Please model this.
Amino acid sequence: MTSQPFDLRGKVAIVTGGNGGIGLGMARGLADAGAAIAVVGRNQAKSVAAVADLAGRGVSAIAVAADVTDKAAVDAMVARVERELGRIDILVNNAGINIRKPPHTLELNEWNEVMATNLTSAFLCSQAAHRAMKTTGAGKIINIGSMMSIFGAGFAPAYAASKGGIVQFTRACACAWAADNIQVNAVLPGWIDTDLTRRAREEIGGLNERVLARTPAARWGTAGEFAGIAVFLASSASDFVTGAAIPVDGGYSIMG
Ligand code: NDP
Model:
């Protein structure tokens, strides 16, 4: 560990889904610690706006339009980041969606879409980034799970399966890549106020009240509250932390 364990100057981070919500909250934290950022998403207008915000923090930032479920697009995205920003030190696998239906009505294509976006994307991006990180001799991968990595919910069968899978995938990569000096960890957000959960609140009656009642902090989290964990897991401060799944949830997961 260096004398400034949270310093990310000279580092380059890819944040999938970095154009809004939790991803942008993490990207802002990484930028404030000095990292250059590649924002990856499908909505290029949103990504360009996020890049303007990040560049305003004094770092290099680029918007890369890519669907993270598409291997060719992911490989091209990683190659472009290496070409334009010079290296890859940090990967945040944050892109995610949910389709809220019980298992008996979920269509196969809906199952596949959620699994591809939330889980297969992490495999594709991590595999591509691993090649670059191995060359550099170090790397940090942060995967975004969920409370549904731990708990079940009748309205989220594919989402829960994908987020449970993310934790196990994190552990597998942590074991496989420790020898390459790459640390791989997961963050498990509680209920955070973003576009994703605004839709959930509209679709699921009583959700707001249940979240407030069960969360010891008695409130929804904010995207900005993911800056600290992102910097910790991206920096030398966490060099002996790997394969962990860390809740950032206002205590939701320890509430009896
Ligand atoms: P948002 O809907 O605000 O953000 C989702 C992001 O994913 C968007 O930036 C979107 O960008 C990107 N994305 C979705 N599909 C793709 C794709 N195929 N290719 C590239 N990018 C894609 O949601 P949140 O910020 O709430 O969620 C971020 C992560 O946190 C997700 O993994 C989610 O499951 C997880 N999470 C969120 C919780 C919450 O309470 N909000 C709780 C637990 C976990 P674009 O549309 O431009 O492609």
User: Anything to note?
Assistant: The mean pLDDT is 97. The radius of gyration is 17 Å.
